[in-house]
Design brief:
The chain has an eight-stranded parallel beta barrel, surrounded by eight helices. It has a four-stranded antiparallel beta sheet with strand order 5-6-12-11, with no helix packed on it. A two-stranded antiparallel ribbon has the order 1-2. By secondary structure, the protein is of the alpha/beta class. It folds into two domains: about 300 residues, Aldolase class I (TIM Barrel, Alpha-Beta Barrel), CATH 3.20.20; about 100 residues, Alpha-Beta Plaits (2-Layer Sandwich), CATH 3.30.70.20. It starts with 5 loop residues before the first strand and ends with a helix. The structure holds flavin mononucleotide and iron/sulfur cluster (2 copies). The site of one iron/sulfur cluster has 13 residues, from helix 11. The site of flavin mononucleotide (FMN) has 28 residues, from strand 4, strand 6 and helix 9.
Length: about 450
């Protein structure tokens, strides 16, 4: 059986599944229950000067039959006194000495940082996470994402934390920034032992069409919130990858964002995360989801012959190139499995209106399976993505004898088009129907 022991910058936990700093880690009661269910670590709900929260606090994007595809909150850091939290951290560590308890912190002055770090270390915290990510409420007070968006300030505060800390310091980054590697590099330059990402994304999830106020509403008004849950995983994965690829970052990563299954967690780790943190999924489904995460990851690692997490961490990083290095001579074409096709025509409509008019409908009575017009198909994948039948449309490689040639090679060899009508442009001979063909069927039926 594969060994799931995780190591983030020297913080060892029995598995890579941590709860992120959020409502599920608001109290010792919850963290104790979570560890008992199988979570390997927990980042405590951010500690600082306790706040007063508003009511209501959450909104969601429900997509078709899925509840909470995206989640949004306007909650701030802990509203409980520091002394209560410290006592509970100490108690949790007594029961679970081998599990990781990380104290998430957010204060303002150097003195406050030094003091609170001393306090949480005395309570037994195994690490410290600096919350430079909260995108509402705290940033207006000069904390949270206000720091995460200013690499120089982030570096200075990281240095303050490192002056006081004897346990590893993790810097939690905000995604509300153009280039995530800038604050990540600043964290590394400030001496951080690791980074964690992402915190939530500034958002308005929806507007009530009767009251005209967005949700969640507080006495008829709202404010932008922080977006998370399954919807943000693609953004998180890209940011994790960018940090993992950047040599000037070069410190371990804790991956956060949209994780609700062992598959999501594994994707984060393949793209460079040493462990993962989960918030929305634990709020939606409860602590029990960790059992499927553990067994799923174990099974996957056994199937792939991975003995330890290091065998898979970062394995996908070299598989991500910048666009200019992708092979322009690689070509795929859609292929429909006639036996699986139910004749719904969704692929035809999508390719007709949204792609390259490379699917035709049979004119023969009773034949419902559409046909791919190979020479028009650009291999965009759209039809296979809209097809409701699993594996009914597959993208098949169309072999040619051309070798690898990227845009970058093209530029170097002087073949790249230089003006608007350049004959060397790839699209010169693409077939497209005549504009008036769009109205042909209407004319014929008149
Ligand atoms: C209601 C709520 C409260 C949160 N509070 C905090 C917090 O106090 N400190 C913090 O660093 N992140 C906080 N977060 C952000 C989460 O820790 C996490 O970064 C984010 O939700 C993305 O992960 P997810 O997609 O698994 O939810 C909060 C998230 C939610 C939904
Ligand atoms: S892959 Fe794209 S172009 Fe080819 S048939 Fe499908 S939708 Fe049309
Ligand atoms: S979308 Fe799939 S099932 Fe529907 S007609 Fe196309 S190939 Fe057949």
């Amino acid at each position: 059986m594969a060994d799931l022991t995780a190591n983030l910058a020297g913080i060892i936990s029995p598995n890579p599944f941590w709860l992120a700093s959020a409502p599920p880690t608001n109290s010792g009661y919850q963290v104790m229950k979570a560890f008992d269910a199988g979570w390997g670590g927990a980042v405590w709900k951010t500690l600082g000067v306790p706040v007063i929260n508003v009511s209501s606090r959450y909104g969601a994007v429900n997509y078709r039959d899925s509840r909470i595809m995206g989640f949004n909150n306007i909650e701030l850091i802990t509203d409980r006194p520091l002394t209560d939290n410290l006592k509970e951290i100490e108690e949790v560590k007594k029961y679970f000495p081998d599990h990781s308890v990380i104290a998430s912190l957010m204060v303002q002055t150097k003195e406050e940082w030094h003091q609170i770090i001393k306090d949480v270390e005395n309570a037994g915290a195994d690490g410290i996470e600096l919350n430079f990510g909260c995108p509402h409420g705290m940033c207006e007070r000069g904390m949270g994402s206000a720091v995460g968006q200013e690499p120089a300030v982030l570096q200075t505060i990281t240095e303050w934390a490192k002056e006081a800390a004897t346990v590893p310091v993790i810097v939690k980054l905000t995604p509300n920034i153009t280039d995530i590697t800038e604050p990540a590099r600043a964290a590394a330059a400030g001496g951080a032992d690791a980074i964690s990402l992402i915190n939530t994304i500034q958002s308005i999830v929806n507007v009530d069409l009767d009251t005209f106020a967005p949700n969640p509403q507080v006495d008829g008004k709202s404010t932008h919130g922080g977006y998370c849950g399954p919807a943000v995983k693609p953004i998180a994965l890209n940011m994790v990858k960018s940090c993992a690829q950047d040599e000037n970052v070069g410190i371990p990563i804790s991956g956060i964002g949209g994780i609700e299954s062992w598959r999501d967690a594994t994707e984060h780790m393949l793209l460079g995360a040493s462990n993962v943190q989960v918030c929305t999924a634990a709020m939606h489904y409860g602590f029990g989801i960790v059992r499927e995460m553990i067994s799923g990851l174990e099974q996957y690692m056994d199937d792939k012959g991975f003995n330890k997490l290091d065998d898979l961490i970062g394995k996908s990083v070299p598989k991500v190139e910048s666009w200019e290095h992708l092979n322009l001579n690689y070509k795929v074409i859609a292929e429909i499995d006639e036996k699986k096709c139910i004749g719904c025509q969704l692929c035809y409509i999508a390719c007709e209106d949204g792609a390259h008019q490379a699917i035709s409908l049979s004119k023969i009575e009773g034949v419902r399976v559409p046909q791919i017009i190979d020479e028009n198909c650009v291999g965009c994948n759209l039809c296979s993505l809209v097809c409701p039948v699993e594996d009914c449309i597959t993208m098949v490689e169309s072999k040619n004898n051309k070798g690898h040639e990227s845009w970058s090679d093209y530029m170097d060899s002087g073949k790249a088009p230089e003006n608007f009508d350049d004959d060397r442009a790839g699209g010169k001979n693409h077939w497209v129907p005549k504009p008036s063909d769009a109205l042909k069927d209407k004319k014929e039926s008149r």
